[in-house]
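Researcher: Here's a chain I'd like modeled. Treat it as a single chain, no partners, no ligands.
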Amino acid sequence: MEFIGKPESIVSAKDLNLVACDRCAKVWPISTTTCGRCGHKLVSRHTRSLSRVWALWVFGFMCYIPANLYPMLKTRTLFQEDESTIIGGAVELAHYGNFGIAAIIIFASVFIPLGKFWAIAYLALSIKSGSRLSTHRRQIMYEIVEYIGRWSMIDIFVVAIMSALVQLNTLASIHPGPASIFFALSVIFTMLSAQAFDLRMIWDARAAEGGSVANE
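Model: Modeled as a single isolated chain. Structure tokens:
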């Protein structure tokens, strides 16, 4: 696709002396401190956004490691007691023919968290070092990370449901293992890390590089 005429420079709300509410997206004059619609505090730019992003990202990644090393489920029957990690539980489900459930657990507990860690780190690094991806694509990447965040707790939901259903007194019982706590903390810190990222910094960095709409 070719653009006719001169490319238009990126103009932000800050350049127009405007500020948008992070909660309801209402636009106000930049001198306004509180949103008149929802009462949320108005900030043109979160100056310490990257520091919060990296701090929460590191905590989330630190929790993700023991979440995969410690047992997620503790299964006790009349004759034995077994412990299984996330990967081990998925492999066992696949061994008994439940390939669909095993694939969902692997995808939700391994690929999605690792993908979120990579995407958040990539977006944060791109602010300082630049990126080959266009601003629009990076914004889409961020929106995808935000969207899939609600599905990151699916493994914890499975453990909770199984623990509630399989309680047969002395015959059999299932209890959450220590990995469930670390996994939940990892998901929470990752979601907070994504929310701490100020998306407007991507456009500021692009404008500072002399970017234009035509290059997007």
